[in-house]
Amino acid sequence: MENNELIAQSNRLIQAKYSETLSFWESFIFAKTCSLIQKEETDFNEYKLYLKEMLDYVDVPASGEAYKLIYEASQKLLDRRISFTAFNKEGKKEIIDTHLVMSVSRLAQPEKGENLYFKVLLHPSLKPYLLQLKTDFSQFQLADYKALRTHTAIRIYEILKSWYGRKKTEVTFEVEELKEMLGLKGKYGHFGGFKKKVLDEAQRRMRENMDLSF
Fold first, then answer.
1. Residue 162, C-beta contacts closer than 8 angstroms, at least 6 positions apart
2. Which of 6, 100, 103, 199 is positioned for an S-S bond with 121, CB 3.0–4.6 A?
3. Which of 130, 15, 133 is nearest to 82 (CA)?
């Protein structure tokens, strides 16, 4: 993988609410899949992800256990749901509830020495928010996900960058609203714990590992 792999997503999709928080591997699989979308595409393809390539990229030694971890994450990703608002053709606001991924497939009996891979088909309801984007979208480097290493840090970075793209240098969220965007609804009953374990940790990771000039 090249460090300059770009991911482009509609800001509406970025600011979605997640039913559950994702693992790092779930986030990375979705990000890697999005990075394979070509600018000229008008429909989703089945995107092929090679396991060893993914492990090498995040500096994890290849092993049967590591492969199993990625496969399990790909299966869990099938059940992940998000919710966001958009305007329909009549200009009316709608709430869209959808899954991130439509299907995941892999070889039942790979041949010895064959590069192991699986294929991901994104959910068709995401097409307007990942294909042929002209306005109101943000771009990320795949390396951003490697640097941050946790889903909550990744999500906070994505959300901040989506507002920065709208020329906002400061944005305010209700705590419960932000929790829903991170997939943490019903967790961290005390703000102190949420601030320390989620907000402060995400800020630390961004400061230590990334160029925050956007």
1. 11, 14, 15, 138
2. 103
3. 15
* Cα–Cα dist 176/185, whole Å: 7
Burial of 33 (0-12, 13-18, 19+ CB in 10 A): buried
Three-state SS at 22: coil
pLDDT digits (tens, 9 = 90+) for 20-71: 999 999 999 999 999 999 999 999 999 999 999 999 999 999 999 999 999 9
Output the CA torsion 198→85→83→135 (10° steps).
-70
pTM comes to 0.93
Contacts of 21 (CB under 8 A, 6+ apart): 151, 152, 182, 183, 184
Rounded to a whole number of angstroms, the CA Rg of the chain reads 17
Q: What is the Cα–Cα distance from 78 to 57, expressed in whole angstroms?
A: 23
Amino acid identity, position 137: F
Residue type, 105: S
Shortest CA distance to 97 belongs to which of 76, 126, 122? 126
- Per DSSP, helices labelled H in 36-190 are 51-57, 64-77, 127-130, 142-148, 151-164, 175-182
Tokens of 153: 């840090």
